[in-house]
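#struct-help
A.M.: can someone run this one for me? Single chain, 99 residues.
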Amino acid sequence: MIDEKLSCEDFEPHVGSDFKMVTEGVPEMSLTLTEAKTLKTQPLDDGLRVPFALLFEGPAPLLPQRIYRFEHGAMGQPEIFIVPIAKTENGFRYEAIFN
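D.P.: on it. Structure tokens below:
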């Protein structure tokens, strides 16, 4: 699945599901998609994607910000740039912004 075609609506049905990390050289783990929300603040030109944000939570170790390849049964293997934004009781929270 190519990220240019992804929208918030693609992710919304999968809130609460796990996205397995399949990036070479990264420990095998899954992140749970906890939120998918649009960031639209003004009308957009034709052909532009409505900006949106995804929030994920996952266990330690802390993952540095970068592009990771995930595997999800319904979404294939999207590549997503995630940024750590908070430490949680059980691990870490990450955010991905799509413009």
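A.M.: thanks! The mean pLDDT is 91.
D.P.: also worth noting: Residues 65 and 83 are 4 Å apart (CA to CA).
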